[in-house]
Amino acid sequence: MNTTAINTEATNAIILTTGMFDLLKDQIRRKKLPHHNEVMLVEQLRNAKQVLRKDLPDNVVDINRSVQLADVESGEKFTYNFVAPDKAKPKHKTVSILSPIGLALIGYAEGTELSWEMDNGIRQYRIEQVTAM
């Protein structure tokens, strides 16, 4: 378990493993994102801090992590269990890290508020808790 604290608030940077950084760059290259999200992701990657998997803080959203999330506007709470795209199965209550919500949250730490374009418009979310699965 890694408890390393990396301060990203001053730079608004996300923290990603090198492999996840490359995977996200590929998503941009493939032009599979709504324009708002593509612009956001490009900016996030520009400021991203890349780390080795062993150095990724435990409170940062990544693959094989469970995330408790709150919709800031409605107050509704959700839990997502993020896995690799080929491992995502609704019957196991797992979601691909490359899903719209996964892309919105990847690399952010607990307590972060962010906006992302979903099917029902731009939503504002707060990451309540991140735990290993």
UniProtKB/TrEMBL annotation:
<protein>
    <recommendedName>
        <fullName>Transcription elongation factor GreA/GreB C-terminal domain-containing protein</fullName>
    </recommendedName>
</protein>
<feature type="domain" description="Transcription elongation factor GreA/GreB C-terminal">
    <location>
        <begin position="57"/>
        <end position="131"/>
    </location>
</feature>
<dbReference type="InterPro" id="IPR001437">
    <property type="entry name" value="Tscrpt_elong_fac_GreA/B_C"/>
</dbReference>
<dbReference type="GO" id="GO:0003677">
    <property type="term" value="F:DNA binding"/>
</dbReference>
<dbReference type="GO" id="GO:0006354">
    <property type="term" value="P:DNA-templated transcription elongation"/>
</dbReference>
<dbReference type="Pfam" id="PF01272">
    <property type="entry name" value="GreA_GreB"/>
</dbReference>
<dbReference type="InterPro" id="IPR036953">
    <property type="entry name" value="GreA/GreB_C_sf"/>
</dbReference>
<dbReference type="GO" id="GO:0070063">
    <property type="term" value="F:RNA polymerase binding"/>
</dbReference>
<dbReference type="InterPro" id="IPR023459">
    <property type="entry name" value="Tscrpt_elong_fac_GreA/B_fam"/>
</dbReference>
<dbReference type="GO" id="GO:0032784">
    <property type="term" value="P:regulation of DNA-templated transcription elongation"/>
</dbReference>
